[in-house]
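Quick question, first post here. What does this chain look like in 3D?
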Amino acid sequence: MAKVLHSIRRARPDDAGAIAHVHADSWREAYRGIIPGRQLESMIARRGAPWWRRAVVSGARLIVCEFEGEVVGYASVGSSRARFLPYAGEIFELYLAPTFQGLGFGARLFGAARGELRRTGRSSFVVWALAENARALRFYERLGGVEVWRAPERFGNEVLARVAFGFDAR
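> Answer (accepted):
Ran it through. Tokens below.
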């Protein structure tokens, strides 16, 4: 019998600690040198295991990517927060542990997040990325995203540009 090495599923409350760990590691990898250090660490500290447990229990649409039974990534989806854009849904977050980036897990997690949005009637959606996060920009462009908007976002005393990528129904 073949062993399943990789799976994507809805998050459970007992995943909270693992999600918090992936969140912290992936955010440090993605945003170190972009978001000011003190602000970045403060943002990470606010989203520990209790925060993630509450999110899952409260019904947040949160999925996890597992490899050999260990949570190595997560994505959260829902209604678009940018009501002025013609997209019904949004992928709020999609992150992988740094050692699992560049191996195809991100594209699979993206596909699962897209499927979750489609199941809730949101076949068009946006994803935001910081303009200075070149790796994220390339990732979303490779997946077919089209830049549809730019907006400022404040991090402490720093104002950074964020980019909205639009994805239409497929």
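The radius of gyration is 16 Å.
Residues 39 and 155 are 6 Å apart (CA to CA).
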